[in-house]
Amino acid sequence: MAIEKRFYFAPWEKAYQRIATPFEEFIHRQTTTGILLMTCAVIALIIANTPLLEPYDKLLHMRVGFFAGNWRIEHNVHHWINDGLMTIFFFVVGLEIKREILTGDLSNPKNAVLPVAAAIGGMVVPALFYYMVNRDGLGDGGWGIPMATDIAFAVGVMALLGSRVPRSLLTFLVALAIVDDLGAVTVIALFYTDEVNLTYLGAAVLITAFMYMLNLMGIRRSLPYFLFAIVLWIVMEGSGVHATIAGIFAAWTIPAYSRFTPSVFSNEVRSILDRFDEHGEDGKPLINNPKQAGLAWKMGHAYDLGVSPLQRLETGLHIPSTYLVIPLFALANAAIPLDMNSIASAMTDPIALGIIFGLVGGKLVGIAGVVWVLQKMGIGVLPEGVNIKHVVGAGFVAGIGFTMSIFISELAFQWDGEIVVVAKMGILFASLIAGICGYVWLRFFTEPANK
């Protein structure tokens, strides 16, 4: 007797059947990003120190553009990566910030006090540390560089420690890093903008307002937001404010709540399933049963209305952001010469020293110091299973500032490529020191989470 075939699996499909919580998916995504970032950074370093550097530079400086009648927009490949593709990264960051504020730890004032305060301390103190070293030199404008934490690398370091790190510490670090991202975006918008074109900026405000009106009207399809986000990026490009900020603004207009409440969604799906079963024919695949196929499509539509656009976009865009945008950014920006002369020169340069001082020392003092003071004052509550020793480890790990720090260095010193290289070298060394210190501290100076 033939056995009825119940499932149709693609070759690798079974490997992806495990159901994970949104937070588990987020952590897995950030860990994967950290691994890819490290790999691409190493590849870029190899390119920078081999004969491949010349064709690499030619490729990055090749100009690419779009033309329509008299309208044209043209930039080199490096600009398209940093100002174009990185908008996708900023859009995902914006979605993460909005989700965390609405439903995460930052939605509860009691839980949000410490990570928000720690994030502020972790931005202000590193900037002050940097400025103390560079207040009278060419590098005084780079104070924003050590303010940033690379959430992917930071989560990746903690993931290496496995169960030794309390899960609640990971949650604390993620909340802190998301506030840190918001701070970095604000700094870029306010302090790393040369000239503002008020006409274009006004157009950007109107487009953002219209996108929010789509939200208020209950438009939950992604296409209208996508089209207006492209227009928003174009006008932001002309406004003088960094174009990637368009990604943040667009993300904040995306509807965060679904059309259906959980109970209505359950009833709707059950009703469709009942009718689906009524029209079933044994052994007949779905493609040969138009009534069932129509009901399956209707079920998919119900699912679209049962899951918020914010959740759907955040999940859907993590693949291009993780596997395309971030690796390309690392490849395009981490090519740094590492001969002994350049290393020795950089390590005596106040810009690199200020970045190392800020990311390693400033982050630690700003984060752990603020939490310790607030705890002594009886303000805020640390997550269950987390103590001040864990926070010290998080302060070290938060000193890994790769992606956003490199991004800000390109803006701060865009007038001098040699200074950018020095700044990037400082970022790489600081991130390496911070990562090693954080791992060693959490591995040997804290109690395992399962004890």
Percent range for β-strand residues: under 5%
Output the radius of gyration.
24 Å
Q: Tell me how many strands there are.
A: 2
Question: Which fold name corresponds to the CATH topology of the largest domain?
Answer: Na+/H+ antiporter like fold
Provide the descriptors you would attach to this structure in a database record.
single chain, 451 residues, mainly alpha, 2 domains, two-stranded antiparallel ribbon, 2 strands, globular
Description of the molecule:
This protein has 451 residues and is mainly alpha-helical. It has 2 domains: 34-257 and 308-444, Na+/H+ antiporter like fold (Up-down Bundle), CATH 1.20.1530; 262-304, no CATH class. It has 17 helices and 2 strands. A two-stranded antiparallel sheet has the order 1-2. 42% of the residues are buried. The model is unreliable at 1-20 (pLDDT under 50).
Short summary:
Helices cover 69% and strands 3% of the residues.
Write the layout of secondary structure elements.
Elements: H1 22-48, H2 53-61, E1 63-68, E2 71-76, H3 77-103, H4 109-134, H5 151-160, H6 167-191, H7 198-216, H8 222-239, H9 245-252, H10 262-278, H11 290-306, H12 309-333, H13 340-346, H14 350-376, H15 388-397, H16 402-412, H17 417-444
Antiparallel strand pairs: 1-2
